[in-house]
Amino acid sequence: MSDAIPVNRIKGVGEKTAALFGKINVYTVDDLIRHYPRDYETYDAPVSILETSPGSVQAVYGQITAIPNVKKVRNLSILNAILKDDNGDSIQLTFFNMPFLKKVLKPGGFYLFRGLIQQRGTHKFMEQPRMFTWDEYIQKSGRLLPRYALTKGLTNQTVQKSVAQALEHYPPEKEYLPQVILQKYPMLSHRKAVYALHFPESREELLAARNRMVFEEFFSFLLVLRKNKELAAKTENHFPMYETADTVRFLEQLPFPLTKAQKKVWGELREDMGSPYAMNRLIQGDVGSGKTILAVLALLMCAANGYQGAMMAPTEVLAVQHFETISGYVKKYGIAFRPVLLTGSMTAKEKREAYAKIASGEANLIIGTHALIQEKVEYSSLALVVTDEQHRFGVRQRETLAAKGSEPHVLVMSATPIPRTLAIILYGDLKVSVIDELPANRLPIKNCVVGTAYRPKAYEFIAKEVAAGRQAYVICPMVEEGESEDLENVVDYTEKLRAALPPSVQVAYLHGKMRPADKNRIMEEFADKKIDVLVSTTVIEVGINVPNATVMMVENAERFGLAQLHQLRGRVGRGEFQSYCIFISTSEAKETMERLQILNHSNDGFHIASEDLKLRGPGDIFGIRQSGEFAFVLGDIYTDANILKEASDAVEQLLVSDPELTDDDSLALVNYFKEHTAVNVVDFRTI
């Protein structure tokens, strides 16, 4: 079966199912095979209620003791039932918005439930556990069952069956990595690894399969970086720029002085833009370290030298905020900017006016989102491209924007703190500047790491801050219903939060599956103080700047990487008010609490990233997924740091033996990656 064959050619996949697959970007057999499980469910033997351990997902079997009790709190239906086992021990079962279970759960009936064990005092309880018959559960016991990202109407069982069908026709054994690499780094074959990722026989086989495919991801990514670096090193500077009176006057008029670190980086930018070769630089700075003002200075120097600059933001709300801030600078300081805004939600007339100003050169600073790289946008003299928060853009989008100029200078800003040992590998195509200090006027954020029993107090604290005129974020890690019993659904969680807070508190939610227009509307309303508490998945990591927000509460904090938690924390502490971060962990295991305490004791992102790297061992297949600018499908730059280093060495070895990638093995590799690479930050067209 060819990779490009439509998914509806698989037995059992009709037009309706194919349409559902399309909603998760699965259109071909190859897409389906590369739709890897997001995790694996293990069904351990049921335990007695006495043996249950708070913070663990476990199964219990017993008898319902009485008719379940149902009550309503505002729009939320809450059903409580008591399960007693053979030893006479009891556990409370709580279900939200499932009143029909009152007719299903019969007093005296025996049932098996699986979910997160929680405890308040001596009282054990489970919320939203899954219910099984004894036979159903025992059939699953001891197996590693893949669980896939789904959409409404598409079941996990359907995906499993379809993947099994597709794998039956996967190409016969063929190796894509060059023999010179495989001899030095023995690993599973490509085909066996792909099969084992979907249907592993054991944890050991799954780890070996994952290691192979992670190596492939890293190898392809780093190979392109190396080739890009070679090209960048030869790129002539077509737009030499020098400091003018505008930048000097702007710096003198700013109400705050640059930090030593900012001054150092500003010197590096000036040197780059005046050198014989085009700038290709990354500014790596902690949240709140002052990266944006340096980007404004670089763009101002560009405008003052008679050229155009473009600043690409990851969200419309942030693009608008940048535009308003810079427009304010123009009015206040009389600087040489003629800014224009360009976003996807603008009317056709507004876009036409913006296009005209950009093409004629009337606008010398263009601020926007992905709309900046549309075909209709023609620049007059694009000399500098700034991408804000790199991790929402791949290399491809950056290059598309850069291609609209004649090899312009490129400046990338990232708030992701990466330990230097990894940064040297991962930023192989860029020169790196680091801002390693915060402005002196920043109030340090106060942190606390607590268990679930603290949640009611956290709600009280949020209510108190809202009453004082402040705002709060609450982060939940998942949104898909049924993805995991122990992770809160954002929508259900919002209802519970509304019930727990005073009726006057305005609560809204935000998650990655919402339409862009709805996301923008919610973020704008939060920025305008129409919403007091925003419940969200991690889509707010880079999406918004609200100085009035003073509380960040993160549920299931143990499920996030420390660097990601630190970035989330950076959404507060941006204004004049004292800010707080509350990390709630469902696991009170020593290792978990030790890891989270790093955040409690430090607000330094680089220190946190280094400590995270020390604590998190390789091959943590069921553990934390780091989100961020390196959007690998399987690989994680922290837990897989050893594989990253091996892949980096392997790229070096390949390019020493075949610098131009012209050998048969190398050509086969490049052709394979061009068609199949699963790394969405790689563009193999550059090779």
UniProtKB/TrEMBL annotation:
Residues 272-435 form the Helicase ATP-binding domain. InterPro entries: ATP-dep_DNA_helicase_RecG, DEAD/DEAH_box_helicase_dom, Helicase_ATP-bd, Helicase_C-like, NA-bd_OB-fold, P-loop_NTPase, RecG/Mfd, RecG_dom3_C. The gene is recG. It catalyses: ATP + H2O = ADP + phosphate + H(+); Couples ATP hydrolysis with the unwinding of duplex DNA by translocating in the 3'-5' direction. It comes from Waltera intestinalis. One of its GO terms (molecular function) is hydrolase activity. The keyword Hydrolase applies. Gene3D superfamilies: Nucleic acid-binding proteins, P-loop containing nucleotide triphosphate hydrolases. Belongs to the helicase family. RecG subfamily. Its EC number is 5.6.2.4. The keyword Chloroplast does not apply. Pfam families: DEAD (PF00270), Helicase_C (PF00271), RecG_dom3_C (PF19833), RecG_wedge (PF17191). It comes from the Bacteria. Residues 454-614 form the Helicase C-terminal domain. Keywords: ATP-binding, DNA damage, DNA recombination, DNA repair, DNA-binding, Helicase, Hydrolase, Isomerase, Nucleotide-binding. GO terms for biological process: DNA recombination; DNA repair. Plays a critical role in recombination and DNA repair. Helps process Holliday junction intermediates to mature products by catalyzing branch migration. Has replication fork regression activity, unwinds stalled or blocked replication forks to make a HJ that can be resolved. Has a DNA unwinding activity characteristic of a DNA helicase with 3'-5' polarity. This is ATP-dependent DNA helicase RecG.
